[in-house]
Design a protein that fits this description.
two-stranded antiparallel sheet, 162 residues, globular, mainly alpha, 2 strands
């Protein structure tokens, strides 16, 4: 947290940026928010953002694209999907992107909690990072329903480019 270059530090410790790291970091971030500790919130967020950026850079292009789409608004989603490079990504490996969307939808549907950072382990044993809602129960959770709806919309829009 006290690093002069958080991205370089995250890169040096990339093998430790796993599900546990992000879950613990997300928990500390939530505690700092509850306490209203602005300085600590900023430090943890800076750390988490650097770690997320480095971890994301190691992921398959399909996972990177899905992360961008999940975190984008409607205009951003349309812009990303209209990009030729991203359209090629949609078609890679027999539509692996769509397998990820379906798997993420199922994961979100059955989770008991939606953590600050949700990890999804794809069939290839890669970790991918999904930014989602804050730690809270899903029973009637509008964040869960919103994310599920968003995934369906992403899938539908992406299918137009196949």
């Amino acid at each position: 947290m006290k690093s002069e270059d958080p991205r370089a530090t995250a890169k040096a410790y990339i093998e430790y940026l796993d599900e546990q790291f992000f879950m613990i970091g997300g928990s500390y971030l939530e505690m700092a928010k509850k306490e209203g500790n602005v300085e600590v919130i900023a430090q943890i967020q800076k750390c988490m953002d650097a770690a997320m950026a480095e971890k994301t850079a190691t992921l398959r292009p399909e996972i990177q694209l899905l992360n961008l789409l999940v975190n984008g608004d409607t205009k951003r989603i349309n812009d990303l999907l209209s990009d030729k490079k991203n359209q090629e990504t949609l078609k890679r490996d027999n539509g692996y992107f769509f397998t990820l969307v379906k798997k993420m939808y199922q994961d979100v549907k059955v989770l008991t909690f939606l953590p600050h950072v949700l990890f999804h382990c794809a069939a290839t044993a890669e970790f991918s990072v999904w930014r989602s809602a804050l730690l809270q129960r899903q029973n009637g959770n509008p964040q869960q329903k919103k994310l599920m709806k968003q995934l369906r919309e992403i899938e539908k829009k992406a299918m137009q480019y196949m």
